[in-house]
Amino acid sequence: MNAILDLGQHAGFIWASYGATLILLGGLIAWIRADARHQLRLLDELEAQGVQRRSARAASPQGKRGKGKAER
Asked: DSSP labels for 28-67?
């Protein structure tokens, strides 16, 4: 076990790299979670305004226009 922790003369650089990586990954995870919450709030606001997704319109009988991709 001590052989694993004995990193020689470059131990400071190695541990600093591990620390920087952990901080970076933690920041990215926090950023992704915050952005997901923000995007969900924006979707909720759009739905409150009555805006629907194209996929929801296509599934409803009113949304079917009978056009293919080439005709659009």
From this structure: HHHHHHHHHHHHHHHHHHHHHTT---HHHHHHSTTT----
